[in-house]
């Protein structure tokens, strides 16, 4: 379970660079990252909205396995 400080830092990163915030949370080869990257390319605001959704509401522990390891583990 991520701490409040981790979530706040990921949200700040997601506002500046949406795919990077999702990458820290879900990993670089995840569906969430690909969707966020596509939305950011199509428009910056949709990328931010999806990144915030992916960080706050999508539970990574539910989908966590050996092949979808995030960049850091808490």
Automatic annotation (TrEMBL):
Subcellular location: Membrane
Keyword Transmembrane: yes
Cited InterPro entries: PMP3
Keywords: Membrane, Signal, Transmembrane, Transmembrane helix
Residue ranges of the TM segments: 33-58
One GO CC term on file: membrane
Keyword Signal part of the UniProt annotation: yes
Signal peptide location: 1-23
Highest rank taxon of the organism: Eukaryota
Family indicated by similarity: Belongs to the UPF0057 (PMP3) family.
Name the record gives this protein: UPF0057 membrane protein At4g30660-like
Species whose genome carries this gene: Juglans regia
Gene, per the UniProt record: LOC108993040
